[in-house]
Amino acid sequence: MSEADGGTRGFDPDVPSTARIYDYILGGKDNFAADRAAAENLMALQPSTRELAQANRRFLVRAVELLARSGIRQFVDVGAGIPTSPNVHEIVRRHQPDARVVYVDNDPVVLAHTRALRADVGVSAVDGDLRRPEQVLDDPELQKAVDFSEPVGLLLVSVLHFVRREEDPAALIRRYTQRLAPGSYLALSIASAGTLPPEEVAKAEAVYANASSPLTLHSPAAVAEWLAGYELLEPGLVPTVKWRADEPEPATLGSALAAVVRIP
């Protein structure tokens, strides 16, 4: 996940990392004691956390496959996290063998892994912060890989809950999408407050208080407002388990939402 400070911070295994917490929740091994402790606290509060994370990965696969089948041949994955198979370039190349994929993150462990993927032709890794769209999109390596006169698949998957309300997530999204050619797509997913009472929201957010990026559980209504004016693909903004799927919903009052929009 992208971090809050705008540059790749020095590696500190005692500071929980959003990317490594997610890695642990998914059953990965690229994490440290502080990450595991934070993840266990979160799962104690929300027992369906692992189930929601796995559903998010399945949404990613479905969304990327849809975009690739629609002819998208270049993807920018912002806040990409530690590679988990199938990763974006593996999914895309089932349909677009010559596609180009740029992974963006500023967690040093993530970057070490994604830079190892550069042995694959058409795969790039860029050090960038989610909250600085212009810096991300103007990165020389990204500019070399992506032709912004052609449609792009922009992925903001499981990262926008690390953007505070005062940072204006709607404006942040527009700063990305206004740079994209007509016919581009944005796929996003986000952990949401759902119907959690305020005290439970506060407990969940507190787990990330000392992490590389703080957690903000936005309301479903707020997320819907961010997407006003975009062309939402069916079925619109829905739980990740219901986006072009019919999976059972986890037994939790919190939720994870997903949507794909087309840029006119």
From TrEMBL:
EC number annotated for this UniProt entry: 2.1.1.-
CDD domains, sorted: AdoMet_MTases
Source superkingdom: Bacteria
GO BP field: methylation
UniProt-listed Gene3D superfamilies: Vaccinia Virus protein VP39
Alphabetically ordered keywords of this record: Methyltransferase, Transferase
Originating organism: Streptacidiphilus monticola
Name of the protein described by the UniProt record: SAM-dependent methyltransferase
GO MF term (any one): methyltransferase activity
InterPro entries assigned: SAM-dependent_MTases_sf, SAM_dep_MeTrfase_SAV2177_type
